[in-house]
Design a protein that fits this description.
Strands 3-6-5-9-8 form a five-stranded mixed β-barrel. Strands 1-2-7 form a three-stranded antiparallel beta sheet. Helices cover 27% and strands 45% of the residues. The chain contains one helix and nine strands, in the order αβββββββββ. The chain starts with a helix and ends with a strand. The protein is elongated. By secondary structure, the protein is an alpha+beta fold. It comes from Sulfuracidifex tepidarius. Keywords: Membrane, Transmembrane, Transmembrane helix. This is Archaeal Type IV pilin N-terminal domain-containing protein.
């Protein structure tokens, strides 16, 4: 009798451990699946983003009109513009506001954006930037005006919020 009770307890314990492991794995793969879907959505938006720009120079100022066209997207578009120092080189492959080439925020449409602490992902699902940045909220397919000193270089990021996570879907360099 003791042997049958012990066997029953071992079988019950094995089943319980199996159910616990199965539920943990199910939760893990659900989260992974959601992250993969978010990354795919960011990649689709990235490939559909088209940025048209018109540059006008007057005196010491560059006046740039940017038109980010994002077909089929109805949510808000977040735009971030920052100036790069003279140490910037076009051969650099990763420029963020945390890089030594960062030289300050640039106003969009004549107004500063909202300073927010944000984590920005690239379309490859890695963290691109984690920190404070000046974000301007607009709608896709709307004209944006940026002016900056002649001789300066400005990087403009285009971000979208996908399930609570900010993803950079494109950028352009002005100047």
């Amino acid at each position: 009798m003791n042997e049958s009770v012990t066997s029953l307890i071992l079988i019950a314990a094995t089943i319980i451990i199996g159910l616990v492991v199965f539920s943990f794995l199910g939760g893990y793969f659900t989260v992974q699946s959601a992250q993969v879907n978010d990354s795919k959505e960011a990649q689709v938006l990235s490939t559909s983003l088209q940025v048209k720009q018109l540059v006008n120079q007057e005196g010491d100022e560059n006046y740039v009109v940017i038109y980010p066209f994002l077909k089929g997207y109805n949510g808000p578009l977040y735009v971030v513009a920052f100036s790069l120092s003279s140490f910037y080189s076009s051969s650099q492959n990763l420029i963020t506001p945390a890089a030594p080439t960062f030289n300050g925020w640039v106003d969009i449409n004549g107004t500063p954006g909202k300073m927010e602490n944000v984590k920005v992902y690239n379309t490859g699902d890695g963290v691109l930037y984690d920190g404070s940045m000046m974000i301007y909220t607009t709608s896709p397919n709307a004209v944006q005006f940026i002016n900056f000193n002649q001789g300066s270089t400005v990087m403009v990021w285009f971000l979208v919020n996908i399930n609570g996570e900010m993803a950079r879907i494109g950028y352009t360099i002005l100047g």
